[in-house]
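[Discussion] Sanity-checking designs against the backbone

I'm trying to build intuition for which residues belong where. Below is a structure token string of 297 positions. I'd appreciate it if someone posts a full sequence so I can compare it with mine line by line.
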């Protein structure tokens, strides 16, 4: 069997893994991944949900050859059909991974490393003052439609970032009618124009602080818990609880118990359970912020 046949068999076994078969992925995963898998299974149990069908596909992005070693970068697309009470929904996740073969034998498989986005946010006059109100009515359905249209792709009208979560959520908010403001100064407002953008548009830490501080145009009210959110709202994540906000998602649905399901970029996902306990970035110190996007009177 050559390396490509081994790779294809591994992808097929990854789907079986969720049903107690095809344990190859578990054997090749490292401990952090195993913990994330255990958390996901426990979370499903706690929610009264179960995976009834899984489809997995792999797309090879590129290869690097070093003597007897072959490093294969690929995308792993997982679709779970989840049943909860009398409802069904499909959760999807795209992971960029790196598989290592040595002498055609499968050696290891792990997520490809992605650099963290820069930490940029400044409290300034533009983000805190009361000024002319930019009236808008937030079209939540349009924001969700945009989120579902581009959850696993990049709108060519915008730059695609390596860490793309906040850029993607900002696009969704804008599609819902949120007006841009503060053009030209990246430290001010919330905007995107050509080859320039504000920190709040593209940096998770900046958007987390911008949303509750803004009094004109796009603004948000902090909610006490996830179950108070509705489609079109935003969740911010500080995975390590160190005060640096790392990730942003947009709510695109609710499960049978009314809890948020979210879409996101970087590790592209659709209808993922909001808590991210199945993420490798999750820690016991994780902090969340829940934001309700509000209309401007």
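Best answer:
Here's mine. Compare freely.
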């Amino acid at each position: 069997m050559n390396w490509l046949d081994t790779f294809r068999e591994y992808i097929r076994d990854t789907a079986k893994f969720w049903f107690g078969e095809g344990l190859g992925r578990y054997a090749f995963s490292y401990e952090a991944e195993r913990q994330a898998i255990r958390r996901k299974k426990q979370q499903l149990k706690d929610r009264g949900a179960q995976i009834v069908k899984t489809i997995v596909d792999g797309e090879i992005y590129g290869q690097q050859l070093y003597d007897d070693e072959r490093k294969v970068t690929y995308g792993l697309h997982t679709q779970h059909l989840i049943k909860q009470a009398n409802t069904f929904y499909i959760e999807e996740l795209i992971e960029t991974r790196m598989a290592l073969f040595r002498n055609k034998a499968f050696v290891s498989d792990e997520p490809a490393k992605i650099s963290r986005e820069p930490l940029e946010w400044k409290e300034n006059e533009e983000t805190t003052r009361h000024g002319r109100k930019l009236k808008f009515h937030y079209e939540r359905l349009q924001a969700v439609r945009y989120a579902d249209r581009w959850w696993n792709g990049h709108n060519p009208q915008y730059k695609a970032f390596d860490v793309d979560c906040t850029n993607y959520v900002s696009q969704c908010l804008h599609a819902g009618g949120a007006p841009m403001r503060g053009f030209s100064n990246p430290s001010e407002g919330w905007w995107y124009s050509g080859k320039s953008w504000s920190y709040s548009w593209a940096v998770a830490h900046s958007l987390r602080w911008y949303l509750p501080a803004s009094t004109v145009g796009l603004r948000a009210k902090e909610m006490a818990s996830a179950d108070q959110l509705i489609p079109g709202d935003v969740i911010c994540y500080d995975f390590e609880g160190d005060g640096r906000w790392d990730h942003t998602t947009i709510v695109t649905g609710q499960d049978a118990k009314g809890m948020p399901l979210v879409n996101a970029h970087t590790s592209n996902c659709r209808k993922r359970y909001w808590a991210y306990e199945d993420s490798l970035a999750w820690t016991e110190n994780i902090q969340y912020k829940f934001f309700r996007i509000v209309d401007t009177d």
